[in-house]
Please model this.
Amino acid sequence: MLSGIPISRLIPPAYTYPLLRSMDAMRVGAGIAFLALSAAVLPSTLDAQAPPAPAARFLVVIDAAHGGEDLGGRFGNQPEKAYTLSLSVRLRSLLTARGFGVVTTRESDATVNADRRIEIANRANAQACISVHAAESGTGVHLFVSSLPPAEAARFHPWQTAQSAFVMRSNALAGELNAALKNSGITVTLGRTALPMIDSLMCPAVAVEVAPEQPANPDEGAQDAAGIDDPSYQAHVAEALAAALVEWRADGMGGRRP
Model:
């Protein structure tokens, strides 16, 4: 319609149909040209606007030993499970503040069996695992790695000896933890032992057992030493562990595959 007058009134009927067909063809041709132009331009426009893929986060698993019906040892009025969870929460907070991804095997006083802990840790595809324990005997922090002999990397590992392919890197992780703890003035004992959970993990893994603080003055006994339930002592240990893991990440030592 043009100015309120039907197009059929302006053009003789004999010419109307061919003209309409011609106009339709022009519209179709213009539409095809527009689609072709859009197909050529749109992908590059979308590519230019697409955000970069996020960098993979460095992931650490924290295993708070015991929990629920499993009390662990008993120190005064508190079971071991309470101390391990408290330290785990402190360490998790420090690591997340430093940009780490963190997976925990428990976040509350829950019963989590060894197989479930192993499953959580191995599915996380982590760059390190810290299993937190507590002890009333000894002083400072005891670090343990698996006593399994080193083995070559393989596509599949037997469940109970999976750690054998990661033992060398677990030793390196223990060395990083040892250095950071000692730099913080904390006494450290290193050891290797059979650890059913650690033995089944497919990433660098260390069991960290926290004992009471070394007395500042050994001649006065343990009177001036902090116990494992001391919040400031727990914070001191957690800070040192976090510092070690920052170094571990910076050194590029956390690749999951051996």
Notes: The chain has a mean pLDDT of 81. The longest strand covers residues 128-134.
